[in-house]
Amino acid sequence: MKTYAKFGVLVAVILGVLAWLTLGGISESKTYFKTISELNQMGDQAHTQRLKVDGYVVPGSIVRNGAEVSFIMHQDPAKRDQDATQLRVVYRGIDPLPDTFKDDAQTIADGKLGADGVFQASKIQAKCASKYEAKPVPKTDATRAGV
Amino acid sequence: MENVGALSILLAFCLAVYAVIGSIAGKLKKSPFLVVSAERAVYSVWILLTAASALLIYSLLAGDFRLGYVAAHTDQSMPAIYKFTAWWGGQEGSLLLWAWLLSTYSAVVVFTNRRKFRDMMPWVTAVLMTTETFFLILIAFVLTPFGILEAGRGNIVEGMGRGLNPLLQYWTMVIHPPMLYLGYVGFTVPFAFAMGSLITKQPGEAWIHTTRRWTIITWLFQSTGILLGQGWAYAVLGWGGYWAWDPVENASLLPWITATAFLHSVMMQEKKGMMKVWNMVLISATFFLCIFGTFLTRSGVVSSVHAFAQSPIGKYFVFFLAIGIAATIYLILDRLQYLKTEARLESVVSRESSFMFNNLILLASCFAVLWGTLFPVISEAVTGEKISVDAPFFNRINVPIGLALMLLTGVGPLIAWRRSSIESLRRAFFWPSIAAVALMIALAAGGAYVHPYALASFGLCMFVAATIFSEFWKGATAIRAKSGIGLIPAAVELTHRNTRRYGGYLVHMGIVFMFIGYTGAAFNKDVTKEVTPGGSFPLGHYTLRVTNMLQGENDNYTWQKLTIDGMRGSQSIGTMEPERRFYKSSQQPTSEVAIRRRLNEDLYLNFAGLSADNQRAVVQAYVFPLVSWIWIGFWVLAMGTLVCLVPSKVRLSYARTQVIGVAQKDAKVAK
Question: What is the pTM of this model?
Fold first, then answer.
């Protein structure tokens, strides 16, 4: 039985270390998912927590200025540019923006809300590299022009 | 035509249901005719699904844009190869591929075992066909690949289709999904055998022996799929990453981890008759994680960069998983007395114990990844707030786990079964330890001490490589001394005598190379610059000079290209041409990065776009040390896996020794 006791102690030590790493890892990298309207209702809390905000890029709002990229996100994909629920986002990360990041793209900005109400993103994700999503896109002349 | 396709799927569904009922009824009623008819039904399912797939492929190639699926995933200007790959480019088609692969596997299993395991096979068939039925329900009734667009009815051809995202028009992406599917689907077979063995209360390890090759091949497919995904992300996405702990990536990793654990722990069962319950749990976990991964990718439960759209199939998966897991747990608990271990753990310092720790750590990693992936779902259920964790969380846990595994990779294979003396440990590990410590001291002196994990990783890689080398060296010199052949032929002969063992070492070596590549990431360098033609900038020991900016246009896209002359020190390394494209039909910009691949480091240039005033080009330049070793490691791993599949020359080298394993039940009673 002594072998099993030794074995048990080792297992407990390994699991203990991993549990400790897990808990530390969670508190270090936890991020709250919010929509823009939820963000607006959060009050002061919004400035202290790390957040992920989901929305759509307002067409024509992407501006590149040096290493900094700013754009406006809105919440409702059906409304495009008349959507009142908007959020200004500034991105200053190191990684290049994904190629899928463009007008109307569904985007997740990851970062913190600045005191001025502008969202400071450290990471931008844009759906979706795989074109699995078959959302009905209105046919425009541009879509046909490629043929 | 679409009617024929839809009808084939419907018929396949009926036959799959029949195969389940027929084989169970035939087994219970002891009617061999029913059992055989069920097996015939399996072949028919394969024929019908092959027909359905052929019809879908034909529609894709011919550009039948009346079909919603064809219109959504192809366009007329696409090369034929991408029209073909649109088979799995979307939800419906990929489910059809899943079903078709499973039916292919099932047909092969039924055919190769048509005279074997008559007792167990009806249940194996039933399990396979139950899974098949589940997928056929999805494509026959929920997401049919042969749906016709409203506008397409009455042959009004609408549009030319939306095409495939140009980012995916890349060779590795052509085979990445089917490789993963081959892996995902393949684990159904060992699972089915495990269940068949449980249901019929088979005493031995027949199911493990029969499915050993399946498991290894499937594991290789899965590894290939994952690596292709990494290779694609590295070469296409423009930031040089190959792993981001995205939920979909995690979904492919989870069953790979449990499968790896399974491949190791079956050796315990074969050799010592231990861990029988555990192996049942592992193979079931692997199978259900494969289904779960498919579910995670498609249901939109967790948000991901590459998830399929939200779709109604989530609840079907939950239902299938719940029933399946409940049934499996019940079966295992009910049959526990048939899974009794035949040997006990004798020492903490033994091969057995190293296998157990290997399993424990792999499972811990699997659990941590699963937990992190589902964290948003769990936290929303518990606290009402959706909280996610990302890369730092996963790295924090999995880096130490990876290092511990690397240590075991070196230690495990050299420790004796049952127990090991200090003296034998010293003999086996003295030189590898010296080599590892020497390397670490040299690297630390060179400045690597700022990355302790990286330092530890390189040390462990050295340690494992040295143990593997010593194993080959010892064996090959012994053969050389006996037969007088050269060292290399002796090493080949050695491998051939026990392919499983030495193939396994090669796989380990591949993992070592991959770890070297992953560790290199600690020393990445990058710089982002806005430059005009004529301008230059430094990066590490490189100097990069932009000489020209070109642009042009063809049918498919418009492009802009930079020509950049690289200097390393004072030596020219040639011209690199990162490019940006704008695809007309999909209105999608892409970047074609320029990579100078070398064994020591890659120089990676991305043309990120133009500055706000359109005057200057934004260039992102990276140096990725050692990254090529990931891909080299993969090839070594693949080769090692193939070696494992070659039959050993000395047949009994891995059979269970009667002395150790008390195989006979009577012996146990006598004790």
Answer: 0.87
